[in-house]
Amino acid sequence: MNRKVLFLLVSIIFQLFCQTPAISKAYAPDEEINITVYEKINPAIVSIDAQTSDGISAGTGCIVSSNGLILTGSHVVEDSSSVEVTMYNGQVYKAEIVSKMGKNKDLALLKITPKTQLQTIKFGDSQNIKVGQRVLAIGNPFGFSGTLTQGIISRIDYTKNKIQTDAAINPGCSGGPLLNTSGEVIGINQSIYNPDNNISNIGIGFAIPINDAKKFIETTKMFKKQ
User: In the beta sheet, which residues pair with residue 85?
Assistant: First the structure.
């Protein structure tokens, strides 16, 4: 092989190497699941700021209809004079409280008037959940919007009808989704338990089964039609 041919081959190889994009980082299968679920569901999750006589009550909400119906916790908007909803892209809307349930169920529906059709959550079936099942939670803990955490279903309280999880749930996460690994909402995050008066998370959180929320939404829709 003469020098000209060798030089030409080296030049071609060098150009090909320079033009080849860097190989993207490979993710583990469980990481891929987390990333896929988050990217799919986060546009349907909002942060909520309710003005009360004691200050701002912050929480999370799930968009359940493309025209702006939002599911959250009733304690988030309890005794509020006004409610603002911030979308994942930063857009802010004034919200109206459509319906609320009592403390035990702790669910509320809000309504905004969006400029465009909104992405919605996908409902799962809380009747089929199992202890040990991996779950994900999205919320706005302490104002850090769009935060993803993961854990398992630690216990199912059949008496109080609550899902217990060790996925981190903190102040600001109330009303947010508890998700299975298919990206379906199986619960609405409600509260935490710990010795320091529910200030921080120690791995004992509770969610309302999504089947209860589905009944609440349907009942509200039926009532509105009357």
Answer: 48, 93
